[in-house]
Amino acid sequence: MADAPQSPLVAVAGPTGSGKSDLALALAETLGGEIVNCDSLQVYRYFDIGTAKLALEERRGIPHHLIDIIDPDQTFTAGEYARLARGVIAGISARGRLPIVAGGTGFYLRALVDGLFEGPSRDQPLRDRLAAREARRAGGLHRLLSRFDPEAARRIHANDAPKVTRALEVCLLARRPVSELYREGRDALRGYRVLKLGLLPERDALYERLDARCRAMFEGGLVEEVRRILALGFPASCKPFESHGYRQALQLIEGELNAREALFYAQRNTRRYAKRQLTWFRREAGLEWLKGFGSDPDIIRAALVRVHGFLQNGAARL
Prior knowledge:
Elements: E1 7-13, H1 20-31, E2 33-37, E3 64-65, H2 78-94, E4 98-102, H3 106-114, H4 124-136, H5 140-148, H6 150-155, H7 161-174, H8 178-185, E5 192-199, H9 203-219, H10 222-231, H11 246-253, H12 259-282, E6 287-290, H13 297-317
Parallel strand pairs: 1-4, 1-5, 2-3, 2-4, 5-6
Helix pairs in contact: 1-13, 2-3, 5-7, 9-12, 10-11, 11-12
């Protein structure tokens, strides 16, 4: 069966705090677009302040999709994101609007555009053995992965236990490197040509903005928001509580940190997360960098020029 005609899709990526929402709003407002969230935390209900989720009145009447779609205790994978996002994008295109994917979760963007390798089913006894090995010697699983699949080990952070475990599980069950299988088995997005824009502010300026934003979140009610979520009956073990800011707010509530320490660690960990995001996006094929914040008028103008050219080139091929 022939592929559908090539429709345009624009993605706005970059580290946390780089102004992705600002740029996506500007593009959508000018070009008749709708925004598709690509942030793994903004999919959760009730987690608003610490995820920098735009309030309804800040969205300028522009439709936003895949925000507040699951409860905090629900599991949500990159594969599920890709499936839902593809359906949403198809609907936007069918309405004659421009889909604009915006967010900093690089794995979600890659799952959407390039597809994912599903791999063998979970093997819980194997996972239990791997967990026991890691408990005996921290970092042992990542070192083991380095022997089985050096490429995957370079790509996955040593502290990301779920991804390290899954990569090893696939290697051991399939008896082949997971990176090799991943390249063979992905179901790439069809019917679309994609323009990926990446925001790249100067590092010191980004870190200064992130520190200020963390401070504003704590001053703006982050701890109270966490108390409200807990009062709704959601346990502290819910995955979104593992994220920077929320984890420290929980530790503050539980008496593990004081207010000054909570802010310090939230700021430090957020800066480190931004650095890891930049490392990821620098490996993203075809991403075009804009060297500044998404709220900068010069960056907005440069992005609009690039998107206009992208749309016109596609129209010329029809």
